[in-house]
Amino acid sequence: DGGITQSPKYLFRKEGQNVTLSCEQNLNHDAMYWYRQDPGQGLRLIYYSQIVNDFQKGDIAEGYSVSREKKESFPLTVTSAQKNPTAFYLCASSIAPRRLRNQPQHFGDGTRLSIL
Amino acid sequence: QKEVEQNSGPLSVPEGAIASLNCTYSDRGSQSFFWYRQYSGKSPELIMSIYSNGDKEDGRFTAQLNKASQYVSLLIRDSQPSDSATYLCAVIWSNFGNEKLTFGTGTRLTIIP
User: With an 8 Å Cβ cutoff, are B99 and A101 in contact?
Assistant: First the structure.
């Protein structure tokens, strides 16, 4: 079945450690996105990519990094510079990035990150 | 900063009644509007999209858009306990050719049996 796969479902980070969250899609979507959701809050955009080897910062990119070496994959690294990483991380994808009009985003099941 | 505003709730509605969820947005040029449903601990699920003024119906759900007043609403008829969730409003706005989806903080809906 086509969809977006995020792994792991739960992740724990130690002090000073970098961790990487995986996001893979087999929907042949050009655009991919990473969001962070804190309890009782909406989704905030971290990074997005409209095409392979290109990505842009969202509203809260500090302390995060991404890569887009393949169309299907958009991993997110939470670096030690992100001092408050505990949150629910959601990956999404959509088609026609330059005509986002009328194109909704579809989400993976999310990764819940906590600090040890 | 483009904004999408929702009443955070909680909104409690008796089973079988109509639940009405509202959303306002700041960018007058926005063209595409979406409603997502999110169950606790789960990812958002798209339930409605609307692009033109007026109403759009899909089963028990009706989305209403009024671009002049900059609001979009979601009506859920014959509310069921399974409709209890947080509903997120999302709006696409353009910035020099880059289009971005902005989410509201969500309205928590509880259907009372």
Answer: yes
